[in-house]
Amino acid sequence: MAKQKSTVQVQGTIGNLTFYKSIDGFMVKAKSEVSRDKILSDPRFERTRENMAEFAGASGSARIIRLPFTPLLQSSADPRMVSRFTALCFKIAKTDTASDRGSRTVANGNLALFYGFDFNNGAILSTILPTPYTITFTRATGNVQLDLAAFIPKQGVAAPQGTTHFQLIMAAAAINFSAQKNTAVQAASDMLPWDNNQAPALSLAASLPANVTGPVFVLLQIQFMEQLNGKYYSLQNGAYNACSIIEVDVS
Fold first, then answer.
1. pLDDT of 51 strictly over 90
2. How far apart are alpha carbons 226 and 228 in whole angstroms?
3. End of a domain among 59, 92, 113?
4. Residue 152 phi/psi, 5° resolution?
5. What's the CA gap between 112 and 107, in Å, rounded?
6. CB 39 within 8 Å of CB 205
7. What gap in Å lies between CA 108 and CA 189, rounded to an integer?
8. Is-contact 66 182, C-beta < 8 A?
């Protein structure tokens, strides 16, 4: 794969070269000399078929996990988020020690590896919100709670230029890889002024069904706003918003 340097950018196929546009600009790559039928049937490509099957499964699992959190991710995901998250799912599938090669799944892998994944690679939550917080999930009751001690916003939140207010949103979902149906619950703070006045202790709480089954993912998002004439406007359509997986419970 290479980047086109010509002043005239080409899209399409010429000979064994394919020219296309990506988020990195205009690219070119050589077409594979191995046919699809050969890859799918030749015994020499058995490892390739196994990798293809596991990658397809990882891609599906990535979509299942992201789906209930779509509203948050629409305002806090970088252009490569889907590919980055799919790559992580593929990595986790490879930690499945209970299945045969080619059949390994994300559901049977080490789900703790999801912890700390940032959906916006340009806004890392741990850097933007260094203020300590605690997250508690009680499966017996389904209660999810996030607590922050009192802090001074301009010292505890690294906000982009133009910020007047910010908001914290916590979301949680129990992921059912088989049913592919998941619903997220969430709780949001008020719009908090980004200033040098101490903000009071903050708690965000939401409830999943009691004794819910399946792994539970908890996400935390911070949104940055500019207040103008009594209205709040997201800075650069959410480009500075951070969102990260802050808890994965598999108990």
1. no
2. 6
3. 113
4. -95, 115
5. 11
6. no
7. 35
8. no
The pTM for the full model equals 0.84
* CA atoms of 146 and 207, how far apart (whole Å): 12
Tell me, yes or no, whether 6 and 60 share the same domain. Answer: no
Domain co-membership, 90 together with 162: no
Domain termination site, one of 78, 113, 148 = 113
Per-residue model confidence as pLDDT tens digits over 73-92? 999 999 999 999 999 999 99
User: Measured between alpha carbons, how far is 73 from 2 in angstroms, rounded to an integer?
Assistant: 30
Is pLDDT larger for residue 35 or for residue 205? 205
pLDDT of residue 14: 63
Judge whether residue 3 has pLDDT over 70. no
Together in a domain, 25 and 94: no
Task: Identify residue 46 by its one-letter amino acid code.
Answer: E
Q: Verify that 108 and 178 share a domain, yes or no.
A: no
What residues make up the domain containing 203?
125-249
**In terms of Cα–Cα distance, which of 3, 22, 21, 4 is closest to 12?**
21
